[in-house]
Amino acid sequence: MLNKEGESWSASFQGLTLRTALQPIYSISHKRIIGYEALIRAFDTDNSAVLPTHLFQLPSSDAENLLLDRLCRYLHIQNYSGIEDQLNWLFLNVSPRVVTTGSRADSFFGQLLQRTGLPPHRIVMEIVEQPTDDAERLKDTVSYYKKLGCLTAIDDFGAGHSNFERIWNLSPDIVKLDRTLLTRATDDHKARQILNGIVSLLHQSGCLALLEGVETHEQAMIAIDAGVDFVQGFYFQKPTTDLGEISQTPANFDDLLKDYKNRRAVSHDPAQQLQSFFSRIFTDVTEQLIQGHSLRNACSELLAHPAVSRSYLADHRGIQLEDTIISDSRARSLDPRFRPLESTTSADWFRQQYLRQALAHPGQLQVTAPYLCVTGAYMCVTLSLGFYQQGELRVLCCDILANATDTLATLKD
């Protein structure tokens, strides 16, 4: 069913000609190609392209599904074996229907690798992220590929039926994040934070993260900032059936990372500005507290700043000592839906890093990254300063509204 076409191979299936298309996958840190995803391209007798969805609708039985799946993999491996690249991975899709209806041990695949001489450690088997009627069989099949020596990947994570339970059950080496996550992150800052959080969770789960569908420079910046390991998409290179030219067009990661570093330098300025701007005020507040002034009077200048939300005092155990002092501007905008969270007298903040850092480094003003404030479910940045009052270590804390643009503007006023 395979035919030699010049330097590459094609296959025939129900009157269609099948060819391999490869799309490079890049490591951001390595700044180079580390693998290729193999995609099937189908053509009719007039050499007109046929949609992949149409191709995979042709099989009318499990046996035909299995045949098409094996044929595609055979074609891809045969073509990849002829490429000069002897280092990088080949990402192969395996149909979930085939996984859950085929044999538990895909002995065909092991024989195929032996026949072509392609080492199993250069293969990444992609399992599409969707529900299955036989989770145990899926787990057994993934285990087989691992025992064979292949890497495994969950594909399209973040679309449809994605969940971390599958990550925990299958323990893939790589998780491919669906482009819908990137699309949302492009237009929604909150979605961008969620994407960053997902990548962090995947890393903590022992998985490398690959972001698909990168199509613009801005999306490349989002991918870099999210901390993903690998990227793939039209911005870097489209899939091509011209396999001889596939590795001849490297992406310019030097310029991308230079742009990212310049942006990060700017984005770090708010923290530095906050420290420099509020350092004197915090010193004045602590001196007044040491002299016996009330927290409200000592914080009057601090709370007058339009970026400041609230201020409070904690002891060496992280226990809040008295009521939180809320700025007038914040008091007028309190959301009544979160009223149960407003009172924080005797609250324990020790598990918050900003408090532990202030306790560990008295006299040094600490600044957090933006986070969700539990007292009102709004994004804030917390400043904290450890100081001694009558021999007791105290921590003065102040929440700043985390809208970086507005904060910078107010600091300049």
TrEMBL record:
Gene3D superfamilies noted in UniProt: EAL domain (3.20.20.450), PAS domain (3.30.450.20)
Domain EAL: 1-253
GO molecular function: cyclic-guanylate-specific phosphodiesterase activity
Origin superkingdom: Bacteria
Ranges that cross the membrane: none
InterPro entries per record: Cyclic-di-GMP_PDE-like, EAL_dom, EAL_sf, Sensor-like_sf
Protein name: EAL domain-containing protein
